[in-house]
């Protein structure tokens, strides 16, 4: 049976009457890219997620008409380290709150505000949990150390990915890390050619296929700096050309709330990177944070900052 056969066998995949779990969302997001052998495993998991908890790997493989190695490969293709990690995710999903059941659908014009609030909250929580499980802490630590000793950090991103990059830059400035954010490709390429081996360049793209971000990051890499991709797809063109890949996890395929989930996951990775970078040179980070807090204290207290002193030279009286 070919992948095409399996796809035509179930044209109603998007509206299957199953719980919208994290595992199933990952499967739907990668469905078109899965080989025929792993598609058979995917179909078994979609039809009966409980089987992952009830069956050892060999029996699940037998039910799918394939091998245990293919089941392991399937787990890795949808973002897990292996079958045990896949089982753990299914077990976690079994205990989630009821309001998470409709996360994959688009919002309608007549949805009550209470439903919108619950869906957005559940989507955010699940996205953050999945991202926390997906990101590689060793890579994050390595990157934090490189940023702490870098001369300069350039961040590339377009649209909402650019907003996530702006959020990271604002945090990094406060601990003394020099950052610039580039969303316009001409300006970004200009910055990229000025990179050196003591610089870091980070590209943000949920899909990993934003042409401008790919071009800017690749150009920076050609000039010797450490390059980093923050993306949902570790097999994307952006990831393929990067030294370090920080994987996010927002697996709803369609907007509402996919664009929001992608942003949450990107900001979470940035916040985690910010804290780890601050830890590398804790004394410097503490001094800079204290200085920036003092600078804005008059505006936080509800008062008005004292006026700047007038240094205009005074003329002698006639």
Could you please describe the fold and organization of this structure?
The protein is of the alpha/beta class and 318 residues long. It folds into two domains: 3-95, Winged helix-like DNA-binding domain superfamily/Winged helix DNA-binding domain (Arc Repressor Mutant, subunit A, Orthogonal Bundle), CATH 1.10.10.10; 136-294, Glucose-6-phosphate isomerase like protein, domain 1 (Rossmann fold, 3-Layer(aba) Sandwich). 56% of the residues lie in helices and 8% in strands. It contains 15 helices and five strands. It has helices spanning 3-9, 22-30, 36-47, 50-54, 57-64, 68-77, 83-94, 113-134, 137-148, 160-174, 185-192, 211-222, 237-240, 258-280, 282-300; strands spanning 152-157, 179-182, 199-204, 226-231, 244-247. It has a five-stranded parallel beta sheet with strand order 2-1-3-4-5, sandwiched between helices. The N and C termini lie far apart (101 Å). Mean pLDDT is 82; it is low at 1-20, 97-105 and 253-258. It comes from Amnibacterium endophyticum. This is MurR/RpiR family transcriptional regulator. Residues 143-283 form the SIS domain. Pfam families: HTH_6, SIS. Keywords: DNA-binding, Transcription, Transcription regulation.
Structural class: alpha/beta
Shape: globular
Mean pLDDT over the residues: 82
* Tally of helical runs: 15
The largest β sheet comes out as:
5 strands, parallel
Q: How many domains comprise the coordinates?
A: 2
Any guess at the CATH architecture of the largest domain?
3-Layer(aba) Sandwich
Strand content: 5-15%
Q: CATH H-level name of the largest domain... which superfamily?
A: Glucose-6-phosphate isomerase like protein, domain 1
Rg over CA atoms, rounded to whole Å, is 24 Å
CATH fold group of the largest domain: Rossmann fold
- CATH secondary-structure class of the largest domain: Alpha Beta
> What percentage of residues falls in helices of 4 or more residues?
55-70%
Query: How far apart are the termini?
Result: 101 Å
- Give the strand line-up of the largest sheet: 2-1-3-4-5
């Amino acid at each position: 049976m070919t992948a095409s056969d399996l796809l035509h066998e179930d044209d109603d995949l998007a509206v299957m009457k199953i719980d919208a779990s994290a595992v199933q969302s990952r499967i739907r997001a990668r469905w078109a890219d899965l080989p025929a052998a792993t598609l058979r495993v995917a179909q078994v998991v979609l039809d009966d997620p409980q089987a992952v908890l009830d069956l050892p790997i060999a029996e699940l493989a037998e039910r799918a008409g394939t091998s245990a190695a293919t089941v392991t490969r399937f787990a890795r293709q949808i973002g897990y380290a292996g079958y045990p990690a896949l089982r753990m995710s299914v077990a976690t999903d079994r205990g989630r709150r009821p309001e998470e059941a409709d996360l994959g659908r688009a919002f309608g014009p007549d949805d009550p505000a209470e439903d919108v609030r619950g869906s957005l909250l559940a989507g955010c929580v699940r996205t953050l949990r999945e991202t926390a499980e997906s990101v590689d802490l060793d890579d994050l630590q390595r990157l934090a150390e490189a940023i702490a000793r870098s001369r300069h950090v350039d961040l590339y991103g377009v649209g909402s990915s650019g907003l996530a990059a702006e959020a990271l830059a604002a945090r990094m400035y406060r601990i003394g890390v020099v950052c610039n954010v580039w969303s316009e490709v001409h300006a970004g390429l200009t910055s990229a050619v000025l990179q050196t081996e003591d610089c870091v360049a980070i590209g943000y793209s949920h899909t990993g296929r934003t042409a401008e971000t790919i071009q800017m990051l690749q150009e920076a890499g050609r000039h010797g700096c450490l390059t980093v991709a923050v993306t949902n797809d570790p097999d994307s063109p952006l990831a393929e050309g990067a030294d370090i890949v920080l994987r996010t996890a927002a697996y709803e395929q369609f907007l509402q709330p996919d664009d929001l989930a992608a942003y949450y996951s990107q900001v979470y990775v940035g916040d985690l990177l910010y804290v780890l970078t601050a830890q590398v040179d804790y004394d410097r980070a503490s001094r800079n944070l204290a200085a920036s807090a003092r600078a804005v204290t008059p505006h936080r207290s509800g008062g008005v900052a004292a006026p700047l002193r007038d240094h205009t030279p005074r003329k002698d009286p006639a």
